[in-house]
Amino acid sequence: MIHSMTGFARREAHGPFGEIACEMRSVNHRYLEAGFRLPEELRALESELRRSAAAALRRGKIDCTIHLRNAQRAERELLIDEAALQRVLSRAEDIAARAPGTASIDPLEVLRWPGVLREEDTDTEGLAAACRTLFEATLADLVAMRAREGERLRELLEQRAEALAKLVATMRARLPELRTHLQQRLRDRVAEYGASVDPERLAQELALLLQRADVDEEIDRLEGHIAEIRRVIAGDEAAGRRLDFLMQELNREANTLSSKSQELDTTRLAVDMKVLIEQMREQVQNVE
Question: CB under 8 Å to 258, separation ≥6 — which residues?
Fold first, then answer.
């Protein structure tokens, strides 16, 4: 089963910490490259999340963004640092004693003094655990989507491999007729000039002409490559690099067929093969 390198997944979670959202996008890439954008509270998890992504994915450029929206301040308990408050009040009393008649202490002003009022501490362990769970679920969704896209790619590749196999079979069926035409063409040219040609020399020229136009090996290799493509896309191993190599080999053989072609029909067949191979190559670029 092949996997695509293109996918998207998004999940959200809620808790005492507020709301956390994880988005993952992936596109094709030669290797696995993962990028993370995390809030400061979760920065320490990056290495762990990167290892999880590498364990689940083989290739692709992955962009992961995690958003954290803290709980509303009005819903969070505000705590007073008793020691800091006592220091501020003590100093305020000293000043009032030294300067009688000054205004009384404003409680709100005291609360605004740095260090007197603090918010409830965030449960960092709970937030980290929630992030891990959310990330793993989002990663699983991304893998599932890439698998679905991979199945669609497999079907397209199978269709084009079948079409290519038919073209190759047509080319093979034409070979006997092609050899006959080449022989007759040479004889016609000799007859056109009205020259007397040694039969042995004519046989040598025919052999050379047929040798230059011989494409049996190229057709054999094309059939072998098509069979290997079908095996790879039906298997479980990572297929992208192997398929990319096979596309290069297919293109090489099709180019050779085109260069050896002696007839318009076989040239057209070779061109049609190259079109199919190019379509397959574009699809293979997105296979993991």
Answer: 267, 270, 271, 274
CATH code for the part of the protein at 7-73+123-147:
3.30.230
Greater confidence (16 vs 128) lies with 128
| Topology given in CATH for the domain delimited by 150-284 | Butyryl-CoA Dehydrogenase, subunit A; domain 3 (1.20.140)
Map out the domains of the chain as residue ranges: 7-73+123-147, 78-119, 150-284
The pTM of this model reads 0.70
Long-range own/partner contacts, residues 211-219 (CB < 8 A, 24 or more apart)? 212/260, 213/178, 213/179, 213/182, 213/260, 213/262, 214/260, 215/171, 215/175, 215/256, 215/257, 215/260, 216/175, 218/253, 218/256, 218/257, 218/260, 219/168, 219/171, 219/172, 219/175, 219/257
Mean pLDDT of the chain: 84
